[in-house]
User: Fold these one by one.
Assistant:
Number 1:
Amino acid sequence: MVRRNITHVSDFILMGLTDSEEIRLVLCTLFLLIYLITVLGNVGMILIICLDSQLHTPMYFFLSHLSFLDLSYSSVITPKTLDNLLTSIKNISYTNCFTQMYCFVFLGATECFLLSSMAYDRCVAIRNPLHYPVVMSARRCCSLVFGSYLFGFTDSIVNVLCMNKLHFCDSNVIYHFFCDVPPVLALSCTDTRDIEITISIFAGSTLMVSLITISVSYVSILS
């Protein structure tokens, strides 16, 4: 039989950061200001790169995608967090919670691989400046960006398949300000040991590959 995600809860409750109304107002103002700066900065970066033909180079091509990921990454979490800080309604639907979690994993993993691609780009530019236009062709740049999104999507799919096996039948209170993997796993009334191991292996592999690639690239540059 196919195992399905059978749940007895229709929504979750995000406890947020604090219950103090004064602190919530201060945090809401601070987060809103940071979010607006993030949105304006990243949207401005993307528009400038798209409109200025002199910036149609590999480095700025990667920067535009990095800005897009940062913008999306912030937009997945911040609006709901601001809503929770402004109102007393802390509920989030089951579907929205898992959608937020999968998008968070997808964008985070994609950004790690994109940073690795950018480190490789800088390594080629500094070590082989004469061959740089040939090595970092438009096709290779697109392949690196596509590969980053593909690996990020793979990480997200692994989380989808793992989390789809969970049953929720007890508490629906998430002690966090967004739907992250660990606090959601803590609510499951089924054994999550194998799922935690699988998710940890993929998440650890993503971080290690990114860290090693970036480290090797910059060590090569310094040498």
Number 2:
Amino acid sequence: IDSFELLYYYDEYLGHSMWYIPFFLILFIYFTGCFTPVEEESRMPVPALLLMGPSSLYYWYLVTEGQIFILYIFTFFAMMALVMHQKRKGLVLDSNGLFLFYSFIITLVLIALWVGWLWNDKILRKKYPGVIYIPEPWAFYTLHMNNLHAAKESF
């Protein structure tokens, strides 16, 4: 049993940190290079607007399933601070920076909607105790959706 507990710890905590800390660090480093002094370069093309939804959904899944909200929110706050700092210098985000920044904003909205929707779920509340309550989509699926599929098959 000890080896299973160690494997679980590695998979759920240490492994996620080893993957996601460099991932968000690289995203932030990329974001630092997305500033321009030219206001006209800060417009997003229509295809980028259409791709913002899937990008935000992808980040939502990473944050909720990976249970890395703290890492995500620190990265987002660092991005906001950088935007305010660069704005004082007269720099604005280019289209790539806007895409990433808006994707993070929409991701935060999706996370808030997800948490709000599952706020009163007593079973998930027991599984995810603490101040930060962000249930995993897989836990929701196995708890609620899996039962629906089993009920439909029994009819």
